[in-house]
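Tutorial handout. Part one gives the primary structure; part two gives the three-dimensional structure as tokens.
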Amino acid sequence: MKSYPQMLFVVLLFFTATALAELTVKEYPLPAGTHPHDVAPATDGGVWYTAQHAAALGWLDPATGKTRHIALGESSRPHGVIVGPDGAPWITDSGLNAIVRVDPATFQVRVFPPPAGTPAMNLNTATFDRNGILWFTGQAGYYGRADPASGEVKVFEAPHGIGPYGITTAPDGSVYYASLAGSHIARIDVKTGKAEVITPPTEGQGARRVWADSKGNIWVSEWFVGQLARYTPATRSWREWQLPGNEPRAYAVYVDDRDKVWVSDFSANAVLRFDPVTEEFESVKLPSPSASVRQILGRAGEVWLPESGADKLTVIHTD
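Part two.
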């Protein structure tokens, strides 16, 4: 484990599109070459992030700006990180082709490998269902589940092949994933493991990441067409909204504790907040150029962004 002292850089951004509000944005530099891909607020007030180019899991102290890195293995290439029901960070590691858990107290690393003979899945993102089972995606055409109690990992072939990317758990316990190459989302039956394909109205839209709101709606970032979409399972209906600006690229999507929807736009180097009630977007320009926010997560009053192109983490305070 390595520790890195860092300076804290604070910026106030005034933003537009609807000119409704002013948000406070804080940017935290990380060690050079980190390439933070995903981020997850920790239970101790810190923030975990996958240091993809450093083969490590990182932890940031927002109070001091200091970071530390926990080595995951020489061939590690961590992609996603979430905090599980046990309070530990769980990682989808494409380099190790395995699920990884790091003990937040001892920093002990435990690897959950797939069955012998499983091909490289290009592991992407994970979510826990209501029974404490971790579900994950692999862009090479797979999704699967890992049981933290037994250590057993099961892998399923995606119904339309390559593409599984973002994944989320809805309030009713259903698990949905998005398929970037397949341009669809899919609902996983957590009992049988079978995935039902659900296709958005726009053809070839590139469903990249997916998130559920408190009402059970499923929000989707549509990468290729620069749209935000909402699927309502109760009525099996869709709505889609074009992001503002020229040639937007919608990458990450996240629903905060107030049911506001956040989506990152690579083209505008911005993060947008969407109000489902007014159907209006607000745009926050990111402090660093070419920030490349690949995932968004948060906790009450905070939205966290990994700037993979700038080696920084950013938090937007919404209170």
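Part three, for discussion. DSSP finds no helices and 30 strands in the chain. The domain at 200-285 is CATH 2.40.10.500 (Thrombin, subunit H).
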